[in-house]
Amino acid sequence: MSHHLSGPNLRSPLDDARLDMTDLFAFTVPGDRTVLIMNVNPIAPTGGQEFHPDAVYRINVDTDGDNQADVAFSFVFSPPEGGRQTVTVYRATGDQARSHEAAGQEIFTDAPVSFDTEAMAAESGPYKLFAGFRSDPFFADLDGIVAKFQWTGVDWGADKNVFGIVLEMPGTELGTAPTIGVWGRVSLRQNGQLKSVDRGAHPSLTAYFNAEDVKDAYNAGEPADDWATYSEPWAAVLEHFGDYDRPAAEQALRTVLPDILRYDRSKPAAYPNGRTLTDDVTSARLTMLTAGKVPTDHIGPHTDLLPGFPYLGTPHTS
User: Nearest 5°: phi and psi at 280?
Assistant: First the structure.
C-alpha cells in the first residue's frame, strides 16, 4: 500500500494508528496557491478517535535543493474534550525548521478539528487550514498485489477513511523558486523527549524496500542521509525483484532517494513532480519495481474528491 502501516511487520508505528502517516500530496490551485496535504490514521473509524495530543505532525519544505528543511509547518493538537479537539499551527524557518520541535510563528491558534462529515475550514492571513476526518484518496488492488499480480478489480481504499491535514497558501510562502521538496513527519513526545516515529514523502517505499528491522530507524532518520544509507540495499531489492543491473537500479532510485517529493510548480503537478489526489502512484511503483513488466493494477482514482478546499472527499459513514 502507499505509506500506510509504515511500522515494522505492517503495523502502525508504536501500534498507534494516530501516528501512522498514510500519504503526502503537493499541488497548486488557481490563484498561484500551493496546497500541502498530509493524511494519517489508516482505516480511521467513525467516531472514537482523534489526532494524538502528544504528537507533532509536521510538513517540511526544502526551498533550495539541499535536502534540508527551510520552511516547516508543525501541527499540535489539544487533548480531546467532550468530542472536540483543536489544532495550533506553527511556521518555522531557518534553524527552527530543521528541528522536529514545534516552533516559529503561530499562524493558527486553537482552530477546530472536524470529526464528522462537515469540513470546517479556518483562515488566518493568507492561509487556509483543515484538519479532521475525511475519505482516504488512496486507490489500489492490494489483494491482487499480495496474490502476485492476480488482479481482483477491487479497490482496497474505496471505503476507507483517514484523518487529513490540509494547508493552502500563496506560493510565495514557500519561496520564490519554482521547485520545492516536501516530506512529512510524525513525532511523539515520550518521557520528555520528542522522537520521530514516522516520516516519508514518496508512496509505497517502506513496504517494498525496507527490511522489518530497519523500519524504525528509517522513520527516525533524515532525508539528507537517505542515499548513503539506503541506496545499496534498495538497489539490491530492484536487482532481485525487477532484474535490474546495478547502474539501472541506482538510476531508478534517484527518483525516490532522498525520500523528498520534488515539485516544480511551474509545471503541472503529476507524480513524481508533486502529487495530486488522482495520481496513480500504485501503478508508478509497480512499474518501477518490475522494470515495466507490471505497469498497472487497473484501479482508477476515487470519484468523491471535492473540487475545492479541502479537496479530500466526505468520509464514509457506513
Answer: -85, 80
301: helix, coil or strand?
Answer: coil
Residue 318, pLDDT above cutoff 90: no
CA pair distance 146, 203, nearest whole angstrom: 17
Contact 137, 156 (CB under 8 A): no
DSSP code per residue over 26-80: EEEETTTEEEEEEEE-TT--SSS----TTEEEEEEEESSSSSS-SEEEEEEEPPP
Residue located via cell numbers 502501516: 5
* 173-179: long-range pairs with CB below 8 Å, 24+: 173/34, 173/71, 173/91, 173/126, 173/127, 174/34, 174/61, 174/63, 174/71, 175/63, 175/64, 175/70, 175/71, 177/63, 177/64, 178/264, 178/265, 178/266, 179/65, 179/262, 179/263, 179/264, 179/265
| Separation CA 163–CA 279 (nearest Å) | 20
Q: Can you tell me the distance from the alpha carbon of 262 to that of 295, in angstroms, rounded to the nearest whole number?
A: 23
Each residue's pLDDT tens digit, 194-218:
999 999 999 999 989 999 999 999 9
Phi-psi region of 111 (alpha: psi -120 to 50; beta: other; left: phi over 0): beta
For 21-38, what is each residue's pLDDT tens digit? Answer: 999 999 999 999 999 999
- One-letter amino acid at 214 equals V
Q: Is 53 left (phi over 0), alpha (psi -120 to 50) or beta?
A: alpha
Is the separation of the CB atoms in 134 and 115 below 8 Å? no
Look at residue 1 and tell me whether its pLDDT is greater than 60: no
Residues 129-172 have pLDDT tens digits of 999 999 999 999 999 999 999 999 999 999 999 999 999 999 99
